[in-house]
Amino acid sequence: MRFLREFRDPQAAEVLVRRIRKVADSLGEISFMEVCGTHTMSIYRYGIRRLLPPNIRILSGPGCPVCVTPNAFLDRAIALARLPGVTIATFGDMMRVPGSTSSLEREQACGCDIRVVYSPIDALRIAAQEQHRRLVFLGVGFETTAPALAATLLEARRTEVNNFSILSAAKVIPPAMQALLKDGPLRLSGFLCPGHVSTVIGSRPYEPLVNEHGIPCVIAGFEPLDILYGFLMLLEQVSEHRADVEIAYRRAVRPEGNPKAKRVLKEVFIECDAQWRGIGRIEGSGLALSSTLEAHDAFLIEVEVEPTYEVPGCICGLVLSGQRTPFECDLFAKECTPETPQGACMVSAEGTCAAAYCYGRIEEE
Question: Cys bridge to 326: 8, 250, 348, 356, which one at CB 3.0-4.6 A?
Fold first, then answer.
């Protein structure tokens, strides 16, 4: 158990690993999926797969918002950046994501006004200071970042910063989990549910997964001990032939979630169908601006967008849907590296391919 040396409390980790192995010893093949990019990175970084018994398989799902954003969205953002008088503001992890023929980083080098910000409110401040330009913020994220988008839009309306708009690619996680169970070839035994998302939405949105599919769900934190404890709780549900939504991250998550964040989301966004890289169109999984905020909706800006093109050989979509691992991609660690990414999963700090490249290749030894 040499990986345990990396844990903050190796003795506690060893106790959890022994408990996991004891429960798993009486079970057959088990497949769990984590649906959070931070979980993915921690699982690879701390060698958690190597600590688990061989009959437990851990799959990485669509838990990285940058990764699941399709090329068509990035192509539209690039087309907007090329328009005269338009400034694009974005989180930094979108800059190097390859679109069909370019990236935001390349367009910035060619002279487009593209700026990295740390929050949407920073983008709003830029718009207020430079009202002669149209500022478009790229609203990529899950329920974790969507409340900040919503609050910024309400502030833009209140302060009448009319040159500020958002190109929304905000998505919600539970419908994607449903889609993986309904349409995918996976035979999952349980979900390790995302901690950050669940601080906003709570535990109740996962109940349909339990009621309709009989699949255990456990919401876990992000420390390696949190993750091991989450897997132990999932195994105990499987061994006891039950399926519940359980919270292992009680220091941050409540069943009802964050009521204030949910209210502001409801005020600003409406549910819509959304395209997910590797999964396709999922009903009710997107967040579009309500009609009361059309003045700030960048999707209403007329622009010609190039046809979508995918890099031949890139299997990001299969990785995001848990059907393949990065090691099964012919491009991985060859043509596709963090310095020369061929797909979004190698760019984002929460991407499965980036995690596998940085920490996971030891698993193949």
Answer: 356
Lateral strand order in the sheet of 56-60: 56-60, 30-34, 190-193, 217-219, 245-247
- State how far the Cα of 226 lies from the Cα of 224, in Å rounded to an integer: 5
| Residue (of 322, 321, 318) closest to 331 by Cα position | 318
Domain annotation for the chain: domains and CATH numbers: 67-171+257-300 (3.40.50.11740)
DSSP 345: G
In percent, the amount of the chain with pLDDT more than 70 equals 96
What pLDDT was estimated at residue 197? 97
Reply yes or no on whether the pLDDT at 362 is more than 90. no
Burial class of residue 301 (count of CB atoms within 10 Å of its CB; 0-12, 13-18, 19+) = middle
CA–CA separation, 91 and 37 (whole Å): 16
The residue whose two tokens read 């060893």 is: 14
The number of beta carbons lying within 10 Å of the beta carbon of residue 123 is: 27
Contact 148, 119 (CB under 8 A): yes
| 364, pLDDT greater than 50 | no
Helix (H) or strand (E) holding 211: helix 207-213
**Confidence class for position 102, pLDDT limits 50, 70, 90:** very high
Structure tokens at 348: 């984002």
DSSP β-ladder status, 217-219 and 245-247 = parallel
Stretch 74-103: mean pLDDT: 96
Residue 235 has pLDDT above 50, yes or no: yes
Place of tokens 């980036």: 354
How far is Cα 61 from Cα 176, in angstroms, rounded to an integer?
Answer: 9
